[in-house]
Automatic annotation (TrEMBL):
Residues involved in ATP binding: G233, A234, A235, G236, S237, G238, K239, T240
Lineage: Bacteria, Bacillati, Bacillota, Bacilli, Bacillales
Alphabetized PROSITE patterns for the sequence: UVRD_HELICASE_ATP_BIND
Organism of derivation: Scopulibacillus daqui
Designated name of the protein: DNA helicase-2/ATP-dependent DNA helicase PcrA
UniProt KW ATP-binding keyword: yes
Keyword set includes Nucleus: no
Length: 783
């Protein structure tokens, strides 16, 4: 038996020993959990029997109260320990399948013997022998595995830095307690293992990468000091993966104080949400809060407007024919995303502090009872040094007082008497009871009648005024829509409070378009954030102080304006921002620059990590795609073999669909699980589906699709963001479709979704971006 075989045998023996201990522990825990569960149901069932209820006097009532509290505490303690046991069991069951993925032998300076550390997704402590049989991959000592090759190494323990020598680094693939593969590694974390992992077919859900995290990714995952961590990385370099393992790391590192609810991840679309939703549970952690920025806008704005989503904006821009109106819209999109426009809004706010705020009349029964002018007078009489939201609060208090007086006056109006007569029985009985309880009735029935009528009038008016009071408390008397509109309705206005160079050349036309849309109750995607910002600055910013970490994935798609907004929204939060400027597909992207973000919290608080190595696609695919963009030569492909991309010419659309269907059948036969036909727009997707559906079973993905399934998908380019497929077919890579410079990144993003196979079709001329790729890097099939 060779030395390696002996080693293998020894390791397999250890796996058996560890898994049988895990098994034993699972049995014990299940028994304990069972006891706790029956305790819980006993407490629930007998809750009221075990509580002594007596409200005869205050002392007894207090005792009753104390006994209820005690019983509730007992129940919640049992529930907590049940949850804990369930969580432990969940991890143990996962460990049983695959107890660990790595081993390092570390000889600490000053010690005689190296310690063997085995790393898994959770730790496992053997109480009998008082040793850790498995260390959590997030434990301080585990960082050695990710950060060092053999030789001198160190890690940060809670109180000090521990130095020593790494004598061995080994990797395993263990399934069902059997070692499938074992590698001893040198410099990086096992290329062999990574080869094996990356060569697997795609799935409808993202997978965790803890066994093969690379050194530079580990820096992202374990970063604790930066207020703002900016990650710029090539397509497929593991940005999203690093973000998710970072969430798991933070939840472990700060487990006593941080919960999944304190972390928010902004993602590009609902499909992506579902794609990544299994990673954290796979690691035994709960998912963080996930949202798209659009969902956030929707929750704040949809009541008052027909709110456009970014995908509709995208379709609009991509389908634009280049007419004057399209051009103005595009200019507006770019301008409104930028900090110049934010400055305009800031200055507008200053202006509004002095004059120009617009209010709504407060009406009651169709009559104005407090006019907008009156409200404006109240506002502008207040000390101008106070911020607008504080003054609004004072105005609201004043209006509430005024409403109180107006309500008293209203009581004697004839409608009130009429309404009293129509009070329904229940309301009347309820009211009668109320008066009795208050001992309002006397012996004198005549008096009672008057008193009753007086109180009933107050009651009726009060009921009607409730809604008004609520509106005033919620500052609904401010006419935010009109205030935003005013900024555009007189294009000269902005020029009175900002320097002319802060306004774009086409400001009057942009303004005209904006007003016309607002008048139709349409709030475009480019207006939504500025509108909400203005609203929040006038009403008082509703911040979220409980969130401690915000992650923004696909950050290149956010405008500077949106970043400022998010920063203000989560004032106590650290931010991790992950993006790739080469995948900036929105029209406003011209304005975004990830490095510019570092000034968001001051440069000292920010750190930037750059990921250059791309893991998703095979080497031939990366070698092709990196020529599509400027600076692409810096992208380093991971060395995984595969076929060269194929460029197929079709004579006409009929030929295109014939060839496409043939290719899809071939790819299916090669067992490619997920084949995506990527189209530029949704409209093009519909066309492709119509032509293909009788030939092959295709599924159309749209912006409302909530989850992925494997199979043949037809998907618009912008929805394919962040996800990946075994084989990608670009439906129409002609110059007509991808010929404008503004479409370069969209094209690049679509091509970089491919893991194993990339095929491009065109009719007419191929995209000019393809002609920038050396011909030896792809195969051409002429028509
Ligand atoms: N260290 C790693 N070990 C194993 N797989 C990895 C590793 N890093 C990245 N991958 C894999 O590479 C693929 C791309 O990763 P991910 O989606 O996180 O990249 P990304 O930078 O967010 O990509 P994009 O910007 O193109 O959306 C995924 O399949 C992921 O599992």
């Amino acid at each position: 038996m060779s030395k390696w075989e002996q080693e293998f045998k020894m390791e397999q023996k250890r796996v058996h020993q560890v898994t049988s201990k895990i098994d034993k522990h699972i049995d014990q825990l299940e028994e304990q959990a069972g006891v706790v569960k029956s305790d819980m149901s006993h407490i629930r069932k007998n809750f009221w029997d075990d509580v002594r209820i007596n409200f005869d006097n205050p002392d007894e009532a207090a005792e009753t109260y104390a006994s209820i509290i005690q019983q509730a505490k007992l129940l919640s303690e049992r529930e907590r320990s049940h949850r804990h046991a369930e969580h432990q069991l969940d991890i143990l069951k996962r460990l049983k399948q695959s107890p660990y993925f790595g081993r390092i032998d570390f000889l600490e300076d000053g010690e005689d013997e190296a310690e063997c550390i085995y790393l898994g997704i959770g730790s496992f402590y053997d109480k009998e022998n008082e040793e850790f049989l498995i260390y959590d991959w997030r434990a301080p000592i585990s960082s050695l595995y990710y950060d060092y090759s053999l030789g001198r190494a160190e890690y940060n323990a809670p109180d000090s830095t521990i130095t020593g020598t790494m004598e061995l680094k080994r990797q395993f693939i263990i399934r069902d307690a059997k070692i499938k593969s074992m590698f001893d590694t040198g410099i990086t974390i096992g290329d062999e293992l990574l080869q094996e992992v990356l060569g697997n077919p795609s799935s409808s859900q993202m997978k965790s990468i803890v066994a093969t995290i690379q050194k530079e990714q580990n820096q992202i995952i374990r970063n604790e000091k930066s207020r703002l961590l900016i990650v710029q990385g090539a397509a497929g370099s593991g940005k999203t993966s690093a973000a998710l393992q970072r969430v798991a790391y933070l939840l472990y590192r700060y487990r006593d104080t941080l919960s999944a609810d304190d972390i928010v991840l902004f993602s590009p679309n609902p499909l992506f949400n579902s794609y990544i939703s299994t990673v954290l549970p796979e690691l035994g952690e709960e998912n963080m809060q996930q949202a798209t920025f659009q969902e956030f806008l929707q929750s704040h704005l949809s009541e008052s407007f027909d709110l456009e989503d970014p995908f509709t904006q995208m379709e609009h821009v991509l389908a634009a024919e280049g007419g004057a109106d399209d051009d103005i819209r595009l200019k507006g999109i770019r301008y409104k995303a930028g900090l110049d426009f934010m400055e305009v809004i800031e200055q507008y706010l200053k202006y509004l502090g002095q004059k120009g705020l617009l209010f709504k009349n407060i009406k009651f029964r169709g009559e104005v009872i407090i006019s907008q002018q009156q409200i404006a007078n109240y506002f502008y009489k207040l000390d101008t040094s106070l911020p607008i939201p504080n003054r609004m609060k004072l105005v609201s208090e004043r209006l509430l007082k005024e409403l109180k007086n107006l309500a008293v006056k209203e009581r004697s109006k004839p409608w009130v008497k009429e309404e009293i007569q129509f009070l329904d029985k229940e309301e009347y009985a309820h009211f009668y009871q109320l008066l009795r309880n208050k001992n309002q009735y006397t012996e004198d029935t005549f008096d009672d009648f008057e008193r009753e009528e007086k109180l009933l009038s107050a009651y009726v008016v009060n009921e009607h005024f409730k809604k008004l009071r609520k509106q005033v408390k919620n500052l609904k008397f401010i006419d935010i829509q009109a205030i935003y509109r005013q900024l555009f309705s007189d294009p000269e206005l902005a020029g009175t409070f900002v320097a002319k160079n802060k306004l774009p050349e086409n400001w009057p036309e942009i303004s005209r378009q904006t007003v016309s849309r607002l008048d139709n109750k349409i709030l475009t995607y480019e207006d939504a954030t500025p509108f909400l910002y203005l609203k929040e600055r006038i009403e008082g910013f509703k911040t979220n102080t409980s969130v401690r970490h915000v992650f923004i994935d696909e950050a290149q798609d956010y405008s500077p304006f949106q970043f400022e907004f998010i920063k203000r929204l989560f004032p106590f939060s650290k931010m991790t921002v992950l993006g790739d400027m080469n995948q900036a597909i929105y029209a406003h992207a011209e304005n975004t620059c990830l490095s510019m973000l570092s000034s968001l919290y001051g440069d000292e608080a920010a750190d930037t990590i750059i990921l250059k190595r791309s893991y998703r696609s095979t080497r031939p695919i990366v070698e092709f795609t990196r020529h599509l963009i400027e600076g692409g030569k810096d992208i380093i492909p991971f060395n995984r073999a595969g076929n060269k991309p194929v460029l197929n010419q079709a004579v006409n659309e009929e030929d295109l669909h014939l060839k496409l269907a043939g290719l899809i059948r071939d790819l299916k036969a090669q067992e490619q699980r997920t084949i995506a036909v990527i189209c530029k727009t949704y409209k093009e997707c519909q066309k492709a589906v119509k032509a293909l559906q009788n030939e092959v079973p295709v599924r159309l993905i749209d912006k409302d699709t909530a989850a992925f399934e494997t199979g043949i998908l037809v998907i618009p380019s912008y929805l394919a963001k962040g996800v990946e497929f075994d084989a990608v077919i670009i439906y129409n890579a002609s110059d007509e479709q991808y010929g404008k410079e503004s479409e370069r990144q969209l094209f690049y993003t679509a091509c970089t979704r491919a893991m194993h196979e990339l095929h491009l079709f065109f009719v007419g001329q191929p995209s000019r971006f393809i002609s920038e790729v050396p011909e030896n890097l792809y195969i051409q099939n002429k028509a």
